[in-house]
Every structure is written in C-alpha cells, then in structure tokens.
Amino acid sequence: MPSSATVLNDLFAQEPGRVERWSVEAGGIWFDWSKTHVTESLLGDGVARLERADFDDWRQRLVRGAIVNETEGRAAEHLAERGTGATESVALARALRGRMHGLVEAVNAGLLGEIRHIIHVGIGGSGLGPKLLVDALGRDGVRYAVWVVSNVDGCALKEAFAHCDPHHSLLVVASKTFTTIETMLNAASVLEWMEEAGVDDPHGRVVAVTADPDKALEWGVDETRVLPFTETVGGRYSLWSSIGFPVALALGWDAFEQLLDGAAAMDQHFIAADPARNAPVIAALIDRYYVEQAACQTRAVFAYDERLRFLPAYLQQLEMESNGKSVDHAGRPLMVPSAPITWGGVGTDAQHAVFQLLHQGRVMVPVEFLAVIEPGHDLDENHHLQLLSNCLAQASALMTGRVSDDPARAYAGNRPSVTILLDRLDPATLGALIAFYEHRTFVNAVLIGNNPFDQFGVEWGKQLARQIGDGGTGGMDASTVALAKRIGL
User: Does 76-251 carry CATH code 3.20.20.140?
Assistant: First the structure.
C-alpha cells in the first residue's frame, strides 16, 4: 500500500505539543489534524504553493463577488447569502430572504390552506441540502413533515405519497433553471396525485424556488409563490438561499437565521485567520498531500452521529462535482490529480462493514471522523458513551496499529485520520461545518488550478438520456443500442 516516509507515532514522539499545534477551534467546532502526516515543512510548502497560485487574489475575488467561474463568466455568491460580498449582492440576498420569510409566515398562518406535509422535489443541490438539514436538526419535532424527493424513480414518490395527505400537502418545486427533467416530471406527478384525490386548485399549493422566475410563471405558479435566487448561487452552494425554504418552514425562521449566522462565522475565520491556523486552508493542504504524494484516490467520511447520516452524500456532490475536473482555468490538462473520491457512512455501523479494509487493506484511505459531544437524545448515557468511545478508538487504532506474531492479527498502523468535534449539533454549528467544507473545497480548487463552480461533466449524459428517451439511439455504441432495444426504448 502507499505509505509515508514519516511515521505518525514518530511525529508524536518528536513533537510533544503536536496535538495543540495541529488543532484549531472555529465556529464552535474543534478540528484535530494531529493524526495526519502534517508537519511544519508540509505547511510551509503548501503556503508557498498557495502564494504561487495567487490564493489571496482568488479568495478576494470570491469574497468581493468578482468573477471566479470563468467558463460561465459568473461570480459565485453564496457568501452574499450570509452577509459577505458585493454591497448590491448582499442587499439582494437580504431582500429575497425577506420575500421567503413572508411566504413562510403566510404558510404558517394558513393562507395556503391547512398544511401538514411538505413535498420538496429537487435534485442535486436542490435536494441534498434540505434533506441533510431537516434530518439533522428536526429530530425533536418539526412544524411540518418534509419529504425530499430527488430520484425520478416513481418508487421515491410513492413513498412520499404513502406518508402525506394530498389535501394537506404543499409542493415545493426547486430547480435553478426550472427545466430539470427529473424534477419537473416529479412535480407533475405530485400535481396529478393531488388532482386525483380531489384537491381544489392543486396549483394553488405549489411554491417554486428558481433562478428563472419566468419559467415558473409559464409552468403555472402564481407570482406570489415564486421564490427567486440569483444565477450566481450554484446548486451545490444554494441551501443558504431560497432553496432553504422547506428548512425554514420545518425548523422555524429563527433556526434558518442561526444556520446563516454559523456559516458567516466560518466565513470570517476563513477570510481573516492566518494560514497556519486557518481550518479550511490546513484541511486542503493535507488533502493535497494525500492525493498527490501518497497517491490516495479516496477520502472517507464517517459521522459518529445518526443525525449526520446524510453528510457524506452531501459532501460527495460538493467535493466531486466541484473539483472532479480535468482542465485548468485556461483549458489546459491538469498537472496534478483532481479531487479524490469522497465516500463514507455512519459509525458505528460502518465499523462492521468497511473498516476491515481501512485497518488491514492494501490501500491507504485518509479518514475523517465527525462526532458531537452533546448527545442528541435523552436515552441511557451509555449509548453516547459507546458511540464516542468507538469513534476515538478507531482513530487511535488506525494510527498506532498493533504488532502480532500472527500476520492475520497484525495491524500496520500509520493510517491517517482527522477528528472533527462539534460541541453540540444545532443550526449554528451545522452552518459553520458546511461552510468549512465549502471553503476547503475552494482552497483545493486553487491548489489544483481548476474551476470549482461549473459542472459540464454532468451535461453530456443528460443529453444522451433525452435522446434515448425520445426513442433515438442513432450513432450510439452497439451495447447501448442493444440494451435500449431489450428495454423497449
């Protein structure tokens, strides 16, 4: 397996203050990188590389709302949703948030009927963010039951229908372009479900969340129930915008504001902290070490908290759609590897499924452990004790290993991990955590040299899907033609 010339156990012996040196607290979160191969030399080389890559300029362009998405000629203004950016962009975000707040209050007041269930249809960033947030923060009860439906497979909708009353449901259609095929088909099926149940004026139960309000109006949504967001907020960075409408409904407006505040706190840390104590910067430099020097092609994320079970899926889109590229800003082939594959699961379940490979497999996989100090339940405290004990034990075992005369029971150790501890899981800390991952992704992009804000790689498959769906396989490979024929397409 790939290995580092530096042994983790030796680093701890050589550096008595290693834990304190390689730990940072920001936004109510404790980051511990001491069990990675990070050294002062690695950090110094990384900071020098950032300087060569004009990191300060790229960061300022992001913060000011200047163009950073060069292939599409756009800024990336998700920070404006949290209060940082061009003055006019921050003002627009505030105004659109006020519009959303007004609609939240209208729903709460019963102006759209007696609503008990929210069916939110949206895919990618339009679905993953709301799904993560409502599941993570709504365990103690929500005002409305939210069902996020992203998959075009009708089984996904059928599950939502089984738990929702058509006479008391609100349909939220979230699509940046309001043309996303999967989303629009799902939305049409929800309306049909309502009509078949005898709901009066199903279109009156629709809220559109989009960057193209005209398309929503053409689809039949009343202007008062259209929640715009700006073109410069990308889908996988959009949960802070009107895409968060079901979150604000389910969790309450105060919780949504606290989410933004937590993200804003991490924004300020990212902008102001010295690179040697800057959490997203340090994380990205370590990412690059393992991808480029240790040839690690994957990175595993394990949440030791059931409330964060959807975080790995959220990060998969954020990281792999942003930095899964092959060319630089000038369109030249990248000279370094792009993003590793992000994968993961939930502890302690994952220990009994994939940790065998992590401990004794012939590949090195950097691991990220996430845990919350305060439990999310009032059951026997041993539940949380066992959970956190396992989290700490796995990280320690990966690093230290174990010598045995029986090769099958020997553990090589020297396997890196990061531990991220939240004091508690609340809107502010979760907002800060997600913002940390956004900034980490951005720093990686600067180091790689690619544009993290476009996603042309997903478009070609969509075009072919439309062609096949329209009954055309002309010019396609023989396997696809044969399979389409066998399916009956």
Answer: no
